Amino acid sequence: MVALSTQEQLDHNVFVQNKKGGGGSVAMSYVSDKPADGHTLMAVTPTHLFTMLRGNAPIGIEDIQGVVRATDDPIIIMVQGGSDYATLDDLIAAGQSGTIKWGGTQIGGVDHIAAMSFANEAGINVSYVPFDSGAEFAAALSRGDIDAAGLNISESQDQVDAGDFRPLAVMAEERMGALPDVPTLAENGMDVAFSTVRGYVVLKDTPQERVTALEQAMLDGMQSERYQEYLDGIGLDGSSIAGAEAWDTQLRRMYEAGETTMSDLGLLP
Description:
Blueprint: H1 2-10, H2 25-32, E1 42-44, H3 46-53, E2 64-74, E3 76-80, H4 88-97, E4 100-104, H5 110-122, E5 126-130, H6 134-143, E6 148-151, H7 157-162, E7 165-170, E8 195-203, H8 208-221, H9 225-233, H10 244-264
Parallel strand pairs: 4-5, 4-6
Antiparallel strand pairs: 1-8, 2-8, 3-6, 3-7
């Protein structure tokens, strides 16, 4: 969707080169061998940052610069619809007196880092249970096999609407348009913000005029009706989109937060 929108703005062919594997390390190896001329962008998620932190990538955070953010899908703390935890305070109280069983994907991924960052900030005990996919731990939450999980609205909107899941808080600084009544962790005085973000970067030595041209073309393209309808279809809105300065700042903030939590968990080399 982003490539199509950008292509229309640049009046040049834009294509997607899939480089899968290694938590983004294959893609990062591919990009690191390309010239820093602005003709190669890389789509990144928090997983790429955590792969860098673990020393499994040929480039680091200092080797890239953000261009635009395309989606920002905050992680939402969810419990089962019939759970005894009616509020975030209820969940925190339970985690302070006992242990919360929390579901997510692989150890060292964004779900894990977000969960443990929240646990550290709230002073609660969390037992993290990894699953192979978001669908699996969502199903486990529905069955009551786990107490809580961090889910995105794009993968849980139907269950929230049906009352199967109860959102307690959003790991963001501002409330979501899709969940206007659900408070943020920032409102609860917690400096924890994690999203399943997807955005684009270039190598740091890319000429600034090229970065600016790409940024403007991509931002203009994402204002198209087609892309806006795409965002709406996954429960997001125009606030997902951000330019270079905001996106680059967010990247580095996620990197620093990940570094702190991964160090505490003994996940760094």
